[in-house]
Amino acid sequence: MALSIRLSRGGSKKRPYYRIVVADARSPRDGRFIEKIGTYNPLLAKDSGERVKLDGDRAKHWIGVGAQPTDRVARFLDAAGVRERAARNNPNKGKPGEKATERAEERAEKLKAAEAAAEEAKNAPAPEPVAEEAPVEETAAPAEGSNEEAEAVIAAEVEAATEEPTPEAEQVAEAVAEETPASE
Predict the structure, then answer these.
(1) N or C: which end of the chain has fewer CB within 10 A?
(2) For residues 75 and 46, what is the distance between their CA atoms, to the nearest angstrom?
(3) Mean pLDDT score across all residues of the chain
(4) Distances (CA, A) of 17 to 27, 31, 56
(5) 10: helix, coil or strand?
(6) pLDDT at 24 (0 to 100)
(7) CA dihedral in degrees (52, 54, 60, 61; nearest 10)?
């Protein structure tokens, strides 16, 4: 008969309470057991003395007889000083899965592309500012009373700068006017 020292669940829904029992390994989790050697209440604080109660002498006896503790009970026995538990190491536990790895690679590629674009923009020659070339007419310095001539020159420049609307622009303006309802 294979013996195990394990937890047997009690308590109500969402309020777990466990008994630490010695039972036949083939019996159901909450079924028949040979002896109750302690209790475990996970709802209590981790530093509470009432969280895990364990009869160390009985646990030693059953381990001597050949009972095998489950992982959780082995932790309790190690904390109580009854049985030394070998530290486990699972190096793959903290590794991300395939999809998370793919997403990380995609983010890294986008970041590299953005850095390359920023570096390219930084190293590119700065575009020279293009000044608007207005026709400059060299005239003699106007006399003190000739403001009318200066105003006439400015008006001629303004007329040259404003362009007639193109036929395409007129068609777009007409289409927009047709689509918008007239306010009544």
Answers:
(1) C
(2) 13
(3) 80
(4) 19, 15, 20
(5) strand
(6) 92
(7) -140
- Residue 75, CA distances (Å) to 12, 35, 87, 88 in order: 25, 19, 10, 11
Residue 84 has pLDDT above 60, yes or no: yes
Buried b / exposed e across 29-53, counting CB within 10 Å, b at 16+?
eeeebeeebbbbeeeeeeeeeeebe
Given a cut of 80, whether residue 55 has pLDDT beyond it is yes
The CA distance from 44 to 13, in Å, is 16
Question: What's at 83, amino acid-wise?
Answer: R
Alpha helices in the chain (DSSP H): 56-65, 71-80, 98-123, 147-161, 167-179
- Interstrand relation of 35-40 and 52-54 (parallel, antiparallel or unpaired): antiparallel
pTM over 0.70: no
Give the span between the Cα atoms of 33 and 10, in whole angstroms.
13
The CATH architecture one would assign to domain 3-80 is 2-Layer Sandwich (3.30)
Q: Where are the domains of the chain?
A: 3-80
- Quote the Cα angle for 44-61-89, to 5°: 60
Distance (Å, whole) CA 80 – CA 64: 16
